[in-house]
Every structure is written in C-alpha cells, then in structure tokens.
Amino acid sequence: MSKYFIFIPNLLSIIRIYLMYPLLTFISEENYLFALYIFIIAAATDGLDGYLARVMNWQTDLGKILDPIADKVLLIGTILILWMNAYIPIFVLVVFVIRDFIIIMGAAFHMTVYETAAPNPNIFGKITTFVHIGYLAAVFIDIIFGLNLTNFMIDFSVALITLISLFLYGLNWFKLTAKLHRE
What we know:
The chain is 80% helix and 0% strand.
C-alpha cells in the first residue's frame, strides 16, 4: 500500500521549488515576516522529503536529482535576493554559488563520463545545508527583530563551512574518479 505514495517526496521537492515565487516576492516587497514563514515551510519540506524517502523507502531516481535541485533553488535564490537587498555580504554569496556550481558540474561529469547514478550526498553536505538554512533563517530574524544574530564572524564561519564541504566533495570525487578509472 505504501508504494502508492512513493511520489510524495518528489511532490514535496516540487512544492519547495514553487514556494520560491512567494518567498522572493515577499522579500522584494520587504515583507520579511511572511518571507520567513515561507522559508520555514520550504526548509521543512526539505527535511520531510528526505525523511519519507529513507524511512518509507520511497526513493526514486527522479528524487535523487530533484531534491538537490530544489535545495539549490531555495538556498541560492534566497541568498541572492538577500544579497541584492544588502543583508548578506558578497563573499558569502560567491562561496555559496561557486560551491553549488562546482558540485553540480562534478555530479554531471560523473553521471555523464562514468555513467554513474546521481551521487549521494555526504554527511557534511547535509550538515552544510542545515547550516545554510539556519544562517538564512537567522538573517530573516535579524531583519525582522533586529537581534544581531549575524555578524562578520558568523558570515565568515558559514563561508568556511561551505568551503570545507566543497573540499570534501572534491576529495570524494577524486577518489571515485581514481577508482572508476582503475576499473
């Protein structure tokens, strides 16, 4: 019976992508409270789709590609518009974008050249996504309530964690490339 619901994680990823329109609209209208609500809902769909896919064994090939794309759309779209409104420094935006671009290109390379399945995220990648979501939520809370949760050290720490994640992904890819090349 539960196999009839295998589409739910993919539906949640699609909903996350569609939530970007109201999220970006609320930010552009400077309605940050509603933007935070939408962001929290979108972030919750990220956790829920992964949980359902693993626990209920509802993993699909589409979901392995759709979920990371939805994550990147959510995070990059949000950080870009917050940067455009001068709430996030340029170096954080650049690190976020470069990391995701390199990860996408690396995954595409491996899937194409070595004809492998979509790569599974590593634990540090999941931690990094969690840190990004927390960071962006803190930026929204700062804007709304003026609590000064984010500062240069927080920005720098998030950028550093992002770069460490990129390094670890790169290390895994080089190991996988060497292994596949030997075969």
